[in-house]
Amino acid sequence: MQFQQSLVGSKVWQLKKSSIRRDLEALAGRSPVLEIVDYLDSGPEVRAVACFQVPTLVQPVNGQVWVAGPVLVGLRYHENFLSSPPIAWEVATLLGPPEAMHPNLSQAGGLCLGAPVAGFSMEILHLIFAAISLQSYNCIEWQSLDLEASAFVRSHAHFFPIVSTGLFEEPDLEPRYRRHKGDFSPFAFPLSPRSARRGTPVGGVPA
If we measure between CA atoms, which residue out of 53, 21, 26 comes closest to residue 38? Predict the structure, then answer.
């Protein structure tokens, strides 16, 4: 009986893996800002790397907080996730840009996605996109994974979101973040030569 259950479980997982890959390709095909740049099936676990062509926050440089992109996110889907909800920050890992900061980002780079359910679909990419573009975040102090980032976002909430559109829309950067000559350059604030290389200062204000 246990052997039969194992065979059934294996078949369900194989079907889910096919669905994951198909859904990733479909989402990337519909989105002007999403590309799946890597995919690995290791048996009991599937991993992928998604590239979002939008900026996100990076940690203070010379006393300033910046935005930089594109954003690389590692995705993880283990067979166990079919029947057991994953821990909120073990599905998505922010791989780049370096020193990214977010109220819901752990020191190891895990992005907290709230409460993913067992058997979740790749539609979770909408939630990831909303998080990295600061459309969605949780700054409640006792729930935050990065207290410094949480304090910064709370005190500069008028700068967010960075991108106001959805995953399937052409990115509509807020005016201060609109692309100019290949750089994410806010026209309201002057950029130093270094800032043009690293990203864009958020209002030129200290963190």
Answer: 21
